[in-house]
């Protein structure tokens, strides 16, 4: 039951991050997750993945793909922390899939999240929706499988 609750909670977390763009509710939800999590120590071991995601987004921001009103936003960084917690719990079923299927899901879900954020007005995709979506899809087709592989290594478990 926990993975489903956690996955549904992440959808609320994503919406709060993208729409409200305030760190308070996100930090509260991260704390609530860690209090309720059945695997708190594994959750904390995944946080380097969030830092890697922040660096990737910061690179894309520096390259001019993303434009934000106030510079690189804290809510985007916090979104990565929520995502890696979800990756290890609500989306853990992805580990059972072949890498190519993980890549396809990453391509659709990863790029789709940024495009959805752009349609909600939280990020401006400076290269246009089409080119930005294509570049993001090409990144996420390998990024999600890499994140999952590194997650298993960080957790110290066999796949």
Describe the structure.
The chain has 159 residues and is an all-alpha fold. The chain contains seven helices and two strands. The protein has helices spanning 2-20, 23-36, 40-45, 47-62, 74-88, 99-119, 129-155, and strands spanning 66-67, 124-125. Helix 2 packs parallel to helix 5, helix 4 packs across helix 5 and helix 6 (99-119) packs across helix 7. The longest helix is centred in the C-terminal third of the chain and has 27 residues, at 129-155.
Brief digest:
The protein has 159 residues and is mainly alpha-helical.
Please name the defining characteristics of this protein.
159 residues; mainly alpha; two-stranded antiparallel sheet
Q: Count of DSSP E strands?
A: 2
Helix content: over 70%
Radius of gyration: 15 Å
Describe the global form. globular
Alpha-carbon distance between the termini?
Answer: 22 Å
What is the number of helical segments per DSSP (H or I, 4+ residues)?
7
Q: Largest sheet, if any?
A: 2 strands, antiparallel
**Binned strand content:** under 5%
Strand ordering within the main sheet: 1-2
Overall pLDDT? 93
Structural class by SSE content:
mainly alpha
N-to-C SSE string, H for helix and E for strand? HHHHEHHEH
Low-confidence stretches: none
